[in-house]
Amino acid sequence: MPRPSRRREAPHYPETADIDLLDVLHALSDPTRMTIVQTLSAEPERACGTFPVDVAPSTLSHHFKVLREAGLIRHREEANRRLTTLRAADLEERFPGLLGTVVAAYRGGGRAS
Amino acid sequence: MPRPSRRREAPHYPETADIDLLDVLHALSDPTRMTIVQTLSAEPERACGTFPVDVAPSTLSHHFKVLREAGLIRHREEANRRLTTLRAADLEERFPGLLGTVVAAYRGGGRAS
DNA sequence: ACGCAACTTCGACATCTGTCGAACATCCCT
DNA sequence: AGGGATGTTCGACAGATGTCGAAGTTGCGT
């Protein structure tokens, strides 16, 4: 019998206590994902399609998944779009100072000169 | 004419100003390399073969190369062994607070519970 | 109802990465 | 000189990763 199709699989997020540092560092080591996090650190919430990155929608979706599963972001449904937020408080609780330090390091010229 | 063979190719390290944040984060996102950095953060200097990791020598050598090229460590020749040191001061200059925060985060239970 | 907008899921594909064993290069010690 | 210790370099190889296009799902407007 045909199971009622859901919109999408409900994404599963790690609990704050289960956030793994190596996963976080790996998630942040990609330029596209770092840009997403940087943008989010300056703005509380943002729709998926509005980030200043230059990749195909499917690629972007993949990066969101990596960030979600690493515990860096959360998604909230609103109308027919998805709003992305940084799990800043959770990260601060789990790894005090980490996110701020990384964001500042990149903002201050993290790419090689 | 046979060029005088050197012991090894002199490894080239990035200048402090050229250290790339994404390279650093990527280098740190591997458990073996993170262990090396952790060990080094508690001890000033250490021979290559004495790190508490469980991989083949060739694999270890590969990880050292990644860490070197990311700007995280330096090697110093002594007798027939190589001493590894953390570029803590350089990193502090380039990305203030980063190394300390990451080391503390991992020490404090960075792996998922 | 129809079409459009916003994302995700699903292959496919090239590249990168971590791992190892074998072979090589140095240096010390006997 | 010979042998052992210490590391590096060189393939090889399986698995992960970033990227895309095509197709599918859901909700809003017209």
UniProtKB/TrEMBL annotation, chains A, B:
GO molecular function, one term: DNA binding
Recorded superkingdom: Bacteria
CDD domains xref list: HTH_ARSR
UniProt protein name: HTH-type transcriptional regulator YczG
SUPFAM superfamilies in alphabetical order: Winged helix' DNA-binding domain (SSF46785)
Gene name of the encoded protein: yczG
Domain HTH arsR-type: 13-106
Any Pfam family: HTH_20
PROSITE patterns recorded: HTH_ARSR_2
Biological source species: Kitasatospora phosalacinea
Entry keyword set: DNA-binding, Transcription, Transcription regulation
